Amino acid sequence: MAELTFDVVVIGAGPVGEVAAERAAMGGLKVALVEHERFGGECSYWACIPSKALLRPGNLLAAAKRMPGVPIGDELDAAPVLARRDWFTGKGDDTGQVEWARGAGIEPIRGHGRVTGEREVTVGDDQVITARHAVIVCTGSVPRVPPIPGLDAIRPWGSREATSASEVPARLGVLGGGVVGVEMAQAWARLGARVDLVITGPRPLPKLPDFAGDLLLDGLREAGVRVHASSGLREVSVVDGGTALTLVDGTELVVDELLVATGRAPATGDVGLDVLGLPAGGPLAVDESGRVSAVDGGWLYAAGDVTGRALLTHQGKYGARVAGDTVAARARGAEVSTEPWSRYSATADHHAVPQVVFTDPEVTSVGLTEAREDSADRVVDIDIAVAGSSLHADGYAGKARMVVDTERGVVLGVTFVGQDVSELLHSATIAVVGEVPLDRLWHAVPAFPTISEVWLRLLEAYGL
């Protein structure tokens, strides 16, 4: 039985695990990074990167059609789109990520890692690694599969299959109106598939303001997606020539592929939680520094989707920076403060989580999307109708929302929906995180003519 010793062992080498390992190594610690699939993880090969590569050409084509005088065609050429996606994912070759780890002073170890004791990780059947200071779990999340009759008789697509398919399906069914569902529905529709999107509510993205879902619904239909709203999937069966879907409202559909995009769950089913007396399959609850609260001794940490906090790559990397820095600081005996907004506290998880849905229109938000109950918060809603948006695209349609704490005079949250609004989001994030007073924000003059003028219109609508 091979035995190794490191200061820190990180399980999971996706973007979150890589960042946690890098921060710990930057702090002078000897770090092992364990991965059972591909170094670079879900985001690099099956999620964020390939999905955006599939979406971008369709967004550009739609934008070009809104600009008179631009010579364009009516359809995308799927082959080069898929080839470009494959270039970004390296066709699954993780050699570059392994080389990066070694260059960062991190030891990459390939195999399935499980916690098998205090500060102990076993990789595969016989390689035992001991951590002097900490083990950091960054194993991400896995798709949730609903118990729909007949679903187990087919091989439905998950997010991985949806982003890595080598051919455009003639008929694609999509179940779920969350981010994965709407992004993949629009991407494949614009690549030539006939897409049927099935959602349980009246509009997609139910966690966001109604206007976001309504504008996105228009965009999906413009892209050719057939949306079956206020419905659901009752039953699946195999028929000649495809898969039959029976919807809750009685509609019958036949598709070649079915994407099930009904949410994700922390990937903790096989990382050794039973050894620690914790239930497998649930999130690893952590404190603000990333330390797992339920494990004695303070040696187990977690970051990213596995914590159940904010299932977003950028937010997971933020938590990984906190966890890696905290482990390194505690290892050298430094004082660690987890007061809000300190370096060792993932405070933004609770107050300022930015998110972009890369559809057309784009949907972005940070912080609160609604007023708090029993508060003096005020919600300001306006159309995005400024010189910059009018010049950006003919018929530009977009909306903006600002949630304000009227007692303190600061922004608590912002939502933007419209073509190319994702680049506005970081300014909103800075306003929320920095708690910039509105009377000071008034002096942040937006350049003319840009879509950023919407900030001035929001402040004017508030009454400044």
TrEMBL record:
Residue positions binding FAD: K52, G113, T139, G140, S141
Domain Pyridine nucleotide-disulphide oxidoreductase dimerisation: 353-455
Gene Ontology molecular-function annotations: dihydrolipoyl dehydrogenase (NADH) activity; flavin adenine dinucleotide binding
Disulfide bridges in this chain: C43-C48
Residue intervals of the FAD/NAD(P)-binding domain: 6-313
Cofactor binding, per record: Binds 1 FAD per subunit.
Source organism superkingdom: Bacteria
Cofactors named for this entry: FAD
Alphabetical keyword list: FAD, Flavoprotein, NAD, Nucleotide-binding
Amino-acid positions noted as binding NAD(+) in the UniProt annotation, renumbered to this chain: G176, G177, G178, V179, V180, G181, V182, E183, G263, D305
GO terms classed as biological process: 2-oxoglutarate metabolic process
Family: Belongs to the class-I pyridine nucleotide-disulfide oxidoreductase family.
PANTHER family registered for this protein in UniProt: DIHYDROLIPOYL DEHYDROGENASE, MITOCHONDRIAL (PTHR22912:SF151), DISULFIDE OXIDOREDUCTASE (PTHR22912)
The protein's name in its UniProt record: Dihydrolipoamide dehydrogenase
